[in-house]
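1st attempt posting a full record on here, be nice pls
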Amino acid sequence: MLPSHSFHIPSRTPSRMRPASLGSIALALALSLAGVAGCGSVEGRLTEARALQDAGDFSSSVSPLRQVLAKDPNQPEANYLLGVALVQTHQSSLAIWPLRKASESEDYAVQAGLLLASSLLETDAYEDAITATNGVLAVDPDRFTALRIRSQASLESGRPESALADAERMMELEPDNFVGMATRAESLIKLKRMEEAEAAHREIYELTVASGDPSMASRGCQALAGFYAEHEPEAAEPVVEECLAAHPGDQQIMALAAEYFDSQEQPERGTALLREAIEREPDDLALRFNLADRLVRLEDEAGAKAVLVDAAAVFDQPPAWDRLALFYQRRGDHEAAREANLKALQGQGGGTPQMRFRQAELALDTGNLEEARRLASELTEPAYREFIEARVELEEGRYQAALEGFESGLVRWPNNSPARYLAGQAAEQLGQYEKAMAHFREAIRSDETATDAALAAARLQFSLGNYNDAQLLAQRHINKRPYAGPDAHVIAARGLAKLGRHEAALRAMVQLGEKDPESKLTVATESAAIVRAKLGPEEAATFVETFGLDLTDPANELALRSVVEDRLLLGQTARALARVDAALAAHADAPSLHDVRGRILLRTGDPA
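the predicted structure (as tokens):
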């Protein structure tokens, strides 16, 4: 059975599940009028799509818009509205084509061009984003938003001179606009004009303080402290302390300060900041969540759990139980997650759709497929139901049906990282490796902390012989999932060893040993393989024999087999048998040890 993982639960209830309201009544009226205007006509379909989007139901507006474009692929408004719908449903890459078509129309050149440029920027297509903003600025040279997008794309594509020119134009149009000032300061950094960059950050700080707006003053302080923290860390501490004193309780400044203290190897100071904030604001649940997240990043799993357990006990509210359930679920403690989620459901009068969805996936996590099917049938949101049904198919080995189910649900929730990960698993089982990698990459892009997608991608790349990609993905998993087990370290080490980077491979194993003392056996055997590849079997056998493991203990059988294999390669049969006989003298009833001895005798010509 394949490992199971939680799905991402959207932060809001999908629009089609909202209770009846004046908005939905207006929508119904608009749709009825659309029918009167001409059932199936272009104008009727456009009216329907406008009404759906006005009501916030962007997903449902896609169908009538595609019907219009099937008749007239160049219809400007339909292309524009389709682009809007796809952007609003987190499908920016799919929005690019209709927005490009719409931007070719004089009527939509600016609004479609701006949304096109923004979508291209979001998908890292910086050169195309610059081209799109050039088109907007040709029509409206002083459009601030176009200048902002182009300057950002220029920075990202290594054109700081162009970004600086756009920033200065933004400041001419709106002298006190924070975005223009910040872009100018960042451009100067990219141009290595550090004295001017420092002066620009000082100017931002002084102008925002003088504005009298606390939120602007906070942003200015963050900008200055961030500049020093990154580029002149020895001068940063007094500025960081000043920001903390001037804006006590400001969570963004606390986050910046904690990151700075971490960089200075003083993580306890950043943690203390959050604990002090909780003491000042004991009713702020978000602060407790932030502290738990920080402790997870610092690999203090026990501390994070204690914070969330305490928050659930103190507040006894659905959000606190919900967050605790997610913590348990991501760490594989599915029974504890189920209990916490049940308490969240009980406190919500039957629970939100997201909580009921989680209960269904927790039934899967605990192996109760029939319960999962029953709960899935009660889910009214189609994507939720499709994801659960697809997971049942995956667990039962019907990989094609599982893949189709996941991909159907992903049309509605394309940024659902766990669903992407599981779709990748289904595709891999079908031998569709390119599709599997595409899903794994999307899962990583959406939220690489949520699943083992980077690890799965690393395994797949290793099996395909792409050792550099494998070790890079494994290292990414180690960095983003600090509570993960030893598998990623093993793949990273094996990939490095295959590339001939034996010293780096051994360092990966040392890091695993330091991080997880329980992985001593894995560290010994994997390190021995690396030593064997670099120096030969004698050094590998000696490495394991002096590693500090009890080679007579059946629990360390893999290490014993490693030594035995090396001694046999060296022709040292007697030494190999002596090792096994010593283990059997201590544990005569261990079947695995008799197996090792029997295999030695087979290889040395003694079948009897």
